[in-house]
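It is worth pausing here to work through a concrete case rather than discussing structure prediction in the abstract. The textbook approach is simple: state the sequence, then state the predicted structure, then interpret. We follow exactly that order.
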Amino acid sequence: MSLLELTRVGKSHSRGSRRIEVLREVSLEIDAGELVAVWGLRHSGRSTLLAVAAGVDSPDAGVVLFDGSDLNARGATVLGDGVGYCHQGVGVPRGRRVIDNVRAGPLARGVSAPTAHSRVHRALERVGVERCGELTLGDLDGAEAVRVAIASALVLGPRLLVIDEPTKGIDLLDRDEIVLLLRSLADEGLAILVSDGDGSGLSDADRTLSLAGGELHGKTSPEIGALVPLQRATGRNTAA
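Step two, the predicted structure:
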């Protein structure tokens, strides 16, 4: 059984009086230690796919399983408790300090202030922005903002990281470094699902799929017998 399994997932959105089928019987499996990228043009449904995969949005049809459990079952609390989700469109107060923003998740889950502080510093260091803790979110450039968003997910110790377009609008050098960061996290055992709008951030993915017309194309399941890294994921170490 894979860590994440989508089986014949369907999703539609309303556009005026029309009902648009965004996802059509999409199936996908991701194992621990895999970096899987989904490419698609604008309005292809890639953001919807990632939101459904993370449990942020519910499918109209089909099933999404995380570690064998239905992500959309009543009372499920997997988001932030096994699944980390990053989306550049998710708004946060630009005047908030980076350290306060990353610390908010653990504190909301009852982690003591000293423990949360320690986890936050380890997460910021892991993604390479340990010097940005006292800055406000509005002070960050695009690449730093992506790294802070990843740190905010890692600090909760996820086993699956879902990231929507992490390289969008990022300079070439910074983009490559973010891709390398994601690759290293996957190599440490974290399952990662990432979307991309122009194909620029797919170079280090284990599998690359395309989404068009609501259908997912490519290798939708891991290779049989693929090796899974034995080292613990950094996200889990961060939450220790």
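Step three, interpretation. The chain has six helices and ten strands. The beta strands are 4-15, 18-30, 35-39, 61-66, 69-70, 83-87, 160-164, 191-196, 207-212, 215-217.
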